[in-house]
Each structure stands twice: as C-alpha cells, then as structure tokens.
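This is your field. Pick holes in the following sequence-structure pair:
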Amino acid sequence: MKGALSTGAGRAVVGLLLPVVLVIAWWAATAAGLFSPVQLPSPSSVVSAGIDLATDGSLWHHIAISVQRVLLGFVMGGVLGLVIGSILGLSAWADALLAPLIGAIRAVPSLAWVPLLILWMGIGEDSKVTLIVIGAFFPIFTNVYAALKHVDPHLVEAGRAFGYHGLRLLRTVQLPAVVPSVFSGLRLALAQAWLFLVAAELIASSMGLGFLLTDSQNNGRTDRLILTIILLAVIGKLTDAILGLVEQRAIRRWS
C-alpha cells in the first residue's frame, strides 16, 4: 500500500475509492426507496439533469461565468494579499498601524459585505468580483505576513552582505525563503474564493453556479442542486490540483 501511494497515479486511484463507494451507497439508498426523489434523487436523475443543462448550453455558461469570477477575484485578492502581507511582514511601523484593522475586517462574515457592496457598486460584476477578492485576500495575506516574520535573520544578513536591499532583498532572498507558505496561502485563498462565489452570486445574479444552486432550491430541483454541488467540488479540486502542480515547480526552482 505504501508503494502504491508513492506515485501520483497511485494516490489518485486510492483517492477515488471513497467517492466511488459513496456513489454506490447513494445508488443503493435511492434504489431501496429510503429517500423520496425530492429528498435525494438517484444518481441517474442527477446525470440526466446535467445532460439536459449541457444540451441547451446553459450549463457551460454557468460554469464559465463562475470560473471567470473566481479566477479574477483570486488573482486580484492574491496579489493584494502578497503585497500587503509583505509590507506588514517587513515593516514594524506598517504592522503596528494596519494589523489591528485588517484583523478586525477579517472577522466580518462574507454575507455581511453583500448589502454594502450592492450600495456602493450596484448589482453588476464589480460587486461580485470584489466579494471574492475579499475572500481570497486574507489567507494569502496571513500566510505571507506570518512567514516573513519568521525568516531566518542570518539569511537576511547574508543577502545584505551581497548588497541586496529593499525590493531586491525581498525578491531574491525573503520571498524565496517563504515559497511553501506563499503557496499554502494561495491554495487556501483559492478554496476561499470558491466559498465566497456562492455568496457573490446571491447579488442579483442570473448566471453562474451559485445562481444555479439557489435557483434549483427555489424551484425544488434537488437533482440540479446536487449536480451543482458536485460541479463546485470537482471544479474546485481541479483548480487546486493545477495550483499544486505550479507549487511543485516553484518549490523546486526557488526553495
């Protein structure tokens, strides 16, 4: 078993075992009539709902809109988190001035931002992407901020001895030293972006997986609701896997 886990393919196969077992249990429960179709539709009903949405093209629009919103919010939130986390992690003055405020804002629930963003930005794309930016910002900020505070001071002194200062010191010595923490923050930020997506698409949205989720609930379409949940899980995992590959290359290069 340990040998099977030593390769990526082996881990992928083992990782699929539990989802397959869950699908079999799901099928058995619905076939035995333990749940009504409204409570838990059969796997075939969910597949049929997906085929219907894919056939009329609406499913691909929902997926494309949601992925676009998540990626925009993730990139913008990640850049802001990296920059502000670096500033606070390296500057005692910035840390003392801004850390209490950022810590307080971080405690605000995601849905609390919705009415304010609607008031400020209306119900267009700006308010939706901004909410995802807020969600993606804090994980990367927190990881970078904490990691930079614990960079080995001897490493920093060695960089200064070679004439590195300011931004050049940050780029060539300090950030490479915290690459694992940066990518841990990025992966958490990506997961948070997907979590905030549903809240973002509550803002008078007519497209996207979050809209499909709430619309299915309002219309009693449990098959579409479960389909949307599965899609959010699968797409979220795929984007995380892609970021994981980038992380491996970055760690090999800079760590």
About this structure: Residues 58-90 form the longest helix (33 residues).
